[in-house]
Write a structure and sequence with these properties.
6-stranded antiparallel sheet, 7-stranded mixed sheet, 49% helix, alpha+beta, disordered N terminus
Length: 684
């Protein structure tokens, strides 16, 4: 005889139980996988483990209960309701055939469709070592009511509990479906170009390197490189930005973008399951596993609270025997059962996770990817936002304004040497130099190239030692220069050839249009802002002056940024750091919440940051904080409302002033109101 494998509870890295909960049951019934089976880790039912620095379990239950629509979901409740109403009518009129056994039979049959699943869940929880669950509370309360012949109340309690759970399932399903619909509307089929022929195939089967044709209004199903000379794309599904983006030949086109008004061709660069959009969907899907402190507290509270109310109910039933003269067991048992129904914590257990999931969905709708409810809580509490300058407060579109070469040097020769050296750098300033200097560098010999952190670079070009960087690089190498250069407010690239100052190039970056507005908005929210940059102090000061940032520090090396960020964190925690997700990794790591700007084109941004703003819209920094605050407000509204109503009705129930019907409202009614309140955040 095969032995049954013992169930082992699953816990997260903080020791919080992840299985055997009402929330897990609701999420299982409302299964809406955000990542399609082709891109998920499985396409059939099984349980497996992944190692990601900690152990966790993915329970893949691709539930088909939703395929039958509302009828399948509500069928047990409808059957139970019809039988309950029939029983109440027969109780009222009492026809001759309606004896006690018929009465018991009608109510028992009415109880089974809605009661049996709950009793089954209660038994399974007990076999897994979880004795005091929400299912156990409802089972004791309704079976006890049956035992004292309160049949209509017993059926009604379980019926409304079942209806409430179904609505909770629909709410969670809708929240998940909204995110999936919002983010993933990729077509299943694509048109590939095969010579002079066009062939329609499944997007999941298209290989890398295939040529795909996009018609006007068609959405890209895969990532690729644009082969046509130019095309306009609607990127709203990815960035939340309604203004079409112009793409040119060689630019990246991502799955989810819509070709606006022209037919174009693109070369596929990633398989369907590895597209940026699939990664984003997986990230949002995983976000629900990262619990906020409030969520974790309620879960831990419920584990302590549930056994306490069971013992209190037992005390309400038994202790009056010793103190009440006319003690009637059935009367006090009825009060205890009312107490149990009222005390069920499902309103909190479901509405709070749903509130955080709704917040994550609202952020996603606005092109902000939040990796967990814990980060929403942190965003709500942020007191200080630390920002990088380039690409965050400025566009990062560097252009050379002027080039001044010292007497005794050939201008084109020096600039060509500069271009050749800067060709070994990926910094935006180097890219600006590459665009400005049109001379070809083919045949120029460059060697011994070395990056000097926070200062620039050096190397040997055609046998000459070249230095290119800020004035600090000149100072370190004891190269004299005109001190008036220190007053220039633009980014300055100083050039030295064989130990002599050869001139400089000034480069300017454009401040983002809404930067000053964002600084004012954050100030109105009580959030301070500090700018840290490796650029020169005078350039940083100029940007700070124009945007209204009070605290700005320039000429910082990476380790200086860490030191300064630690000082800010010690003075006014929690802090958020906003960067591009690729640089400043140490500051992102030490901040309470790391926000990556323009993460749509960066795999590293999606991996490294806690919050990813998919475009470069700086206005989404205060928006993400507002979403965090709104989510936390709704969660606490639900907590206070649920506890307030339940406490009041508990007292009424214990004193005999409340019936099972009031208990049903205090349980199911409060749960539905809390769920409806939690769903509001999705429309933000």
């Amino acid at each position: 005889m095969p032995t049954m494998k013992k169930h082992v509870h699953i816990y997260d890295a903080e020791g919080n139980q992840l299985c055997c909960t009402l929330e897990q049951k609701i999420n299982r019934k409302a299964a809406v996988p955000l990542v399609s089976p082709e891109s998920a880790c499985c396409s059939h039912d099984h349980t497996h483990e992944h190692k990601h620095g900690h152990e966790h379990e993915h329970n893949h239950e691709h539930n088909v209960s939703m395929k039958g629509g509302w009828w399948l979901l509500f069928r047990p409740a409808i059957i139970s309701f019809i039988l309950l109403v029939s029983g109440i009518i027969l109780d009222h009129y009492g026809p001759p055939f309606y004896n006690q056994w018929v009465r018991i039979g009608i109510y028992l049959v009415a109880y089974i469709p809605v009661g049996w699943p709950v009793l089954k869940e209660a038994w399974e929880s007990i076999t897994k070592g979880e004795i005091f669950s929400e299912f156990m509370l409802m089972g004791i309360a309704t079976l006890g009511a049956m035992g004292i012949e309160q049949y209509p109340e017993a059926v009604a309690v379980m019926l409304f509990y079942s209806i409430g759970e179904t609505f909770q399932t629909l709410a969670v399903q809708r929240a998940k479906a909204n995110i999936k619909m919002m983010l993933d509307q990729r077509p299943d089929d694509v048109t590939i170009v095969n010579g002079e022929k066009f062939e329609t195939v499944k997007a999941a089967n298209v290989p890398v390197g295939a040529i795909v044709r996009l018609n006007p209004g068609e959405k890209a199903a895969l990532d690729g490189i644009l082969l046509s000379e130019r095309a306009d794309f609607n990127t709203a599904a990815l960035t939340g930005e309604s203004v079409p983006a112009m793409k040119y030949k060689g630019d990246e086109v991502l799955a989810g973008m819509i070709s606006v008004n022209s037919s174009c061709r693109m070369e596929v660069t990633r398989p369907y399951e590895d597209s940026k959009l699939s990664g984003i969907l997986r990230m949002v899907q995983d976000a629900s596993s990262r619990k906020a402190p409030t969520e974790l507290f309620i879960r831990k509270f419920a584990k302590v609270y549930t056994p306490i109310v069971v013992f209190l109910a037992a005390a309400i039933c038994l202790l009056p025997y010793f103190f009440v003269r006319d003690y009637t067991f059935s009367e006090w048992l009825y009060r205890a059962l009312i107490f149990l129904v009222i005390s069920c914590p499902c309103a909190l257990v479901i509405s709070i996770p749903l509130g955080y999931f709704g917040g994550i969905g609202a952020a996603s709708r606005n092109g902000i990817l939040v990796k967990g409810g814990n980060y929403l809580d942190t965003l709500a509490a942020v007191r200080h936002v630390v920002v990088d300058k380039t690409g965050t407060m400025t566009l990062g579109n560097f252009e050379v304004r002027e080039a001044e070469i010292s007497d005794g040097f050939d201008k084109m020769e020096v600039l060509t040497y500069l271009k050749a050296l800067q060709g070994f750098s990926t910094h935006p300033i180097a890219a600006a130099v590459q665009r400005f200097v049109r001379e070809d560098t083919i045949g120029i010999n460059v060697k011994d190239v070395r990056e000097v952190p926070g200062k620039g670079m050096s190397g040997t070009v055609n046998g000459k030692h070249i230095l290119a960087g800020n004035l600090a690089l000149m100072q370190v190498n004891n190269i004299p220069y005109d001190k008036s250069l220190e007053a220039i407010e633009y980014t300055l690239v100083a050039i030295a050839v064989d130990g002599k100052f050869a001139g400089y190039v000034t480069i300017a970056d454009e401040i983002k249009q809404n930067a000053a507005e964002v600084v004012r908005e954050l100030a109105d929210m009580g959030v301070e802002m500090t700018m840290l940059s490796g650029d020169s102090s005078k350039v940083v000061a100029a940007v700070a002056r124009e945007t209204g940032i009070r605290n700005a520090y320039g000429s910082l090396l990476p380790e200086d940024k860490v030191t300064k960020a630690n000082e800010i964190k010690a003075a006014s925690p929690p802090i958020a750091f906003v960067g591009d997700g690729m640089n400043d990794a140490p500051v992102l790591a030490l901040s309470d919440v790391g926000i990556a700007m323009g993460g749509l084109g960066s795999d590293m941004a999606i991996e490294s940051a806690d919050v990813v703003i998919q475009d470069d819209d700086i206005r989404k920094i205060p928006l993400s904080i507002r979403i965090g605050k709104k989510t936390k407000n709704i969660v606490w509204q639900n907590i206070l409302f649920a506890f307030g109503v339940k406490a009041a009705v508990m007292v009424l129930g214990a004193t005999g002033e409340a019936t099972m019907w009031e208990a049903v409202f205090a349980d199911v009614g409060v749960a539905l109101i809390a769920v409806a309140n939690a769903v509001r955040i999705q429309r933000m």
